[in-house]
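Weekly puzzle thread! Below is a chain. First person to post its structure in token form gets bragging rights.
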Amino acid sequence: MLGQLSRLARHSAVYGLGGIVSRVLAVLLLPLYTSYLTPGDYGRVETLIALSAVIVTFARGAISTAFFRFWFDGPDEAYRRRVLRTSFWFTLGVATACLALGVLLSRPLARLLFEDPGDATLVALAFVGLWAQMNYEQLTAVFRVEERSTAFLLATLANVLITIGATVALVVGLGLRAEGVIVGSFIGTLSVYVVLLAWRREQLGLGLDRDLLVRMHRFGLPLVPSAFALWALTFSDRFLLVELADEAEVGLYSIGVRVASGLVLVLTAFRMAWPAFAYSITDDDEARRVYPYVLTYLLVLLSWLALALGVLAPWIVELLTTPAYQAAEDVVAPLAFGGVAFAGYTVLAIGVGRARRTGLNWTVTGLAAVVNVLLNLVLIPRHGMLGAAASGAVAFAVMFGGMALRAQRVFPVPYQWGRVTAAVGTAVALCAVGRAAGVPLVVAGALVVAYPVALVPFGFFEERERRRLAALRDRLRHAVARRPRRA
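Winning reply:
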């Protein structure tokens, strides 16, 4: 089991390295955005990102999820090539159709979203980005099923570096503001996509297996309503904030989302590695031994990170933005802990996919989406963006609980619920104390450092974990003791 967990951690770390560079550069761009874009500009950009996400949910027909499941149905190279080609040509065709419709309907969409048909160009550009992202993700998914995380990392880094350079040139050099952010976001994606097309040309070729496509959709289509519900959980708050508050509130909220994305960085790295890793364990008994520790260790790590982001949010926002955006600090903690609940859902949901019982996933995510929308309608008029953040956190918790019940029925796994509760509950409690008391920076840092110690009274650590931690402590002490002292 330790070897399995090490393999998952290794690939997640490599995926995460690309994400770290991407997120760090994105965070470093916040001063640029907040200096050259108004909150309204930034709100329009985030609204179009949300629109792209919901369209992709429907357009791909969950073919991306089926791609991972069907790839591991057999080791035959010819079969896997059919899976790849079928997924590639389906994605390319649908993405092109979406681009054409988006350009044709750009003026009505601009009027609907922003009450200004003058933003039609911005909408059309967003659809170009949608086309690039759909096709790019399909090709880079091949690296993930092949467990070639280093190749994936190189593609990601190239994409990020080109994107950052293009965005700075367009926003600062040409003064394009929102248009510059949108265009810059897909220049790197398109560039790397062209290179990947040339690289994979022999594997791709012409060919789409219709029977295979039908079977992949039979597996994946039940996940579309679930994916749409996940979109509602993740992005509908932007649309509701636009309608129930204003674009400036969306801009502030989006800054909070960016700060909380430090947790999303780790989660994204894990999600890149998790499907291929989880399905590659062909023995069900082995899977039942490994999955519980994946859930526990992932939630410990993310709860610790959510605690850090939550209590340190005032100083992070102050460092990265202008005073006009300081209020964004209030939403960081609930957004981060919502991400923790989503991480747990991601681990639990793999059991349903393993059992090929995806048909009722939508009931879990649908319930959470309804809870989210209803709470948003109640809380946003009263509390603005803080109401939106709290609604999302509650809804993700509902989704985690619902998937725990659903997954255990179709693929029972002995998850360590006591340890999971202790890990998440302790982090939430420490964060609540720090935020409510308005502690200074030194105390906030101390709360973060104290998290592992705070788990001890709950009997969180197993005997073998305590032994390994003690051995690590002894090695560190020995290393310190052997360091030569300066005169």
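Puzzle host: Confirmed. Bonus trivia for everyone else. The chain is about 85% helix and 0% strand.
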